[in-house]
Amino acid sequence: MLVVAEVENTDRDRPVDLRSDTVTTPTPGMRAAMARAEVGDDVYAEDPTCRALEERVADLLGTEAALFTVTGSLANLLGVRALVRPGAEVLCEARAHIARAELGAHAAVFGVTSRTWSHPRGLVDLAAVRELLVPDAGPYFVSTAAVSVENTHNFGGGSVQPLDSLRALRELTAASGVGVHLDGARLWHASAATGVAPGTYAACADLVSVALSKGLGAPVGSLLAGPAAAVADARVWRKRLGAGWRQAGVLAAAGMYALDHHLDRVPEDHANARALADRLADVAPGIVDPAGVQTNIVVLDLAAAGIRTGAAEVAERARAAGVLVSVLGPAALRLVTHLDVDEAGCRHAGEVLSTALK
Ligand SMILES: Cc1ncc(COP(=O)(O)O)c(C=O)c1O
């Protein structure tokens, strides 16, 4: 008899935590799947559950292979490295996770430089990319080796990259021998919002990272997917960076469980985010455009709503009332819905924030 059923997420006094979709804790069912997992030494390529997860995600994305990694940051690091030699550049949007939230890893570890374009929702700006793109800059300037796109775009408010512009980007870059990296930490969310299959998005890129720990409820795990040779090389670099792991099947089992049980419910998170945005736009017009909330992320612009209270103060008031949100800037807050916050929790958060904003 497994004891995991006792470890239920039933603490009714816990706060409504909307800081991120990474704060979820494994459900009893997921813990049971982890406890049952068949494992082996993954560095020896002998972990059947890791293999099964990698094959499943490669299949979902229509790629030859995939590599299970401990974090999305590592999947991105390995993915960009595969496309950009030291000293060359990757182009990305100014608030892309790889540019802002990976602590300069791409430069610090692999000598990758970057230039950025800006878009209020983090979307691909083809004209800007065309202007920045210099595939062969000669001996005095930096050459562009890849473009990285984030779908959905986290700091852009969970925005979905239009498929047409991803396809146009693919055409533009392919013509000049430049690679495309897709940071698809929330590619599932893009697919749920549009009905476009994950593989259709993945086909617009050379290498794709996807996460199991953002909104899908796994405690750990991302995958880097792409051609078999690139993934095999990434496996070597994963080990070189000290991130080879042994009986990782217990974690892969959580990922498998997340795909089996939590992928289909992502639209609930989108509906909750939209309802929250509707509520807040009612009490503070201009704070967010609810029609722009496509997935599970709501970014609030306090200044646009004429609210003079700072974001940190609003977050503190909300925290005191049991609702946690992220401060993105002096006048910006982020709320992220996920499987540990239900509709009632989101409604409660809407009420608490309505008061905190006054
Ligand atoms: C778009 C995006 N990419 C990558 C990551 C990195 O994932 P991890 O926290 O697993 O390193 C995140 C994390 O939130 C993210 O939002």
Automatic annotation (TrEMBL):
Keywords: Lyase, Pyridoxal phosphate
Needed co-factor(s): pyridoxal 5'-phosphate
Keyword Hydrolase listed: no
Entry-annotated residues carrying N6-(pyridoxal phosphate)lysine: K214
Aromatic amino acid beta-eliminating lyase/threonine aldolase domain span: 17-301
Molecular function terms, GO-annotated: L-allo-threonine aldolase activity
InterPro entries documented for this protein: ArAA_b-elim_lyase/Thr_aldolase, Low_specificity_L-TA-like, PyrdxlP-dep_Trfase, PyrdxlP-dep_Trfase_major, PyrdxlP-dep_Trfase_small
Any matching Pfam family: Beta_elim_lyase
Keyword Ribonucleoprotein included in the entry's annotation: no
Gene Ontology biological-process entries: glycine biosynthetic process; L-threonine catabolic process
One of the record's GO cellular component terms: cytosol
Family in the record: Belongs to the threonine aldolase family.
Name under which the protein is recorded: L-threonine aldolase
